[in-house]
Amino acid sequence: MDPSKTASTEEPQLRHVEKDVLIPKIMREKAKERCAQHVDAFNLCCKDAGFFMVFKCQEQNAALKECLTQHYKDPAFFEECKQEYLQEKREYEQTGIPAKNRKQKLPTSM
């Protein structure tokens, strides 16, 4: 091991499940937030079209797919989500509390 590198500066080795499942999950959630106007337009179209949404909402679906795909293929976006995942992982290792439980509001005393 190179003594000039410390544990905090070394890039951690990601497991298959982290790289191919957990980080892409964060990417999907963030991409949906960033493409919110396309998501809303598609949802509205689907509600209005009902059973015929497959035919009537092709334009909105294509725009949504384009927006999401643009984010999924962006290496900088992957790196951003990877860093967010690694930060959550470090916090879990330090506290033992999963991120979803840490983000809940704590009850106030009476």
Automatic annotation (TrEMBL):
User: In which compartments does the protein localize?
Assistant: Mitochondrion
Q: Name one GO cellular component term.
A: mitochondrion
Alphabetically sorted, this entry's keywords are: Disulfide bond, Mitochondrion
Lineage: superkingdom: Eukaryota
Q: Does the record carry Disulfide bond as a key word?
A: yes
**Major subcellular location class:** mitochondrion
Say yes or no: keyword Ribonucleoprotein present: no
InterPro entries assigned to the protein according to its UniProt record, in alphabetical order: Cyt_c_biogenesis_Cmc1-like
**Family to which this protein belongs:** Belongs to the CMC family.
Q: What is this protein called?
A: COX assembly mitochondrial protein
What organism is this sequence from? Cirrhinus molitorella (mud carp)
